[in-house]
Amino acid sequence: MMCGAEILALPEGVQRVAAVLRASGHAHAPVMLSDAARTAQQAADALGVSVGQIAKSIVFRRKLDDAAVLVVTSGDQRVDEKKVEALVCAGKRLGRADAAFVKARTGFSIGGVAPLAHASPVLVLIDRSLFRFDELWAAAGHPHAVFQLSPLALERLTHAVVADLAVDQDVEKKALSHAIALVTLRAQMVEDGADVPSPCISICRMNATTALCDGCFRTRDEIAAWSVADDAGKRAVWRTIGQRMQTLQN
Questions:
Q1: For a tag site, which of 33, 48, 147, 153 has the least CB within 10 Å?
Q2: Which pairing describes strands 136-139 and 54-62: parallel, antiparallel, or unpaired?
Q3: 8 Å CB contact between 208 and 97
Q4: In which residue ranges of the chain is CATH 3.90.960.10 found?
Q5: CB proximity list for 62: less than 8 A, separation 6 or greater
């Protein structure tokens, strides 16, 4: 446990988390890492645990009432938005939460969003995949801060609903194979002297883990810049897409 003086030495966001944990009688105070742990893999590497033991927080924006919906899932899983929508939405869908929305509603910046101690009311859901482990680590309000807890403690501290919210991995693999096949066919049209086709195959969904579109395997910046890029630039993007697809298949 931390005393008051130790809490005051922490960044403001971590102070809030530490105060909530202390008031709740939680046995493990936040730990400041020497390197940033903005991703589940970075956190796992720093702590010497499996990536699945990292309880990552994904924030969505509910269009019905502009509420923040925070899903805590295992670091080796992806959130299935349709499952979340079925649980918390009525008619209107979930939207993407940008950095400003996340900061305003949770009080934390992306990369350090804790599952508790939020700046305003947040609807928290827990993915059942976390219950595979006895020990978890969650962000503690700063990219360098984490704290240890069990799945049951996470449920108790957040008062969250536990549900199956992860993407079915067999379905995901089939979707990946389908997208790669379609993009590979489109790639055959990329020839010197010909108009360079767009890689878009009308599957416009950004993957929170890879930061790539699940349909064309481009980043947001690459998609935004496509319309103003020259043919040489477009062919360079196509070469990068080919390398990414090969990596994803391995």
A1: 48
A2: parallel
A3: no
A4: 4-163
A5: 68, 69, 88, 89, 92, 94, 95, 123
DSSP the chain: ---HHHHHTS-HHHHHHHHHHHHTT-S---EE-SS---SHHHHHHHHTS-GGGEEEEEEEEETTTTEEEEEEEETT--B-HHHHHHHH-SSS-EEE--HHHHHHHHSS-TT---SS--SS--EEEEEGGGGG-S-EEEE-SSTTEEEEE-HHHHHHHHTPEEE--BPPHHHHHHHHHHHHHHHHHHHTT--TTSPPPP---S---B-TTT-SBTTT---HHHHHHGGG--HHHHHHHHHHHHHHHHHHH-
- The pLDDT tens digits for 151-171 are 999 999 999 999 999 988 777
183-219 pLDDT tens trace: 998 888 887 556 899 999 888 888 867 889 999 999 9
pLDDT, tens digit (0-9, with 9 covering 90-100), for 38-88: 888 899 999 999 999 999 999 999 998 999 999 999 999 989 888 999 999
Domain 4-163: what homologous superfamily? YbaK/aminoacyl-tRNA synthetase-associated domain (3.90.960.10)
Which residue in this structure is represented by tokens 């922490």? 10
Helix/strand/coil for 36: coil
CA distance 160 to 181: 40
**Strands (DSSP E) found in the chain:** 31-32, 54-62, 67-74, 94-96, 123-127, 136-139, 145-149, 161-163
CA angle 185, 216, 85 (to 5 degrees): 130
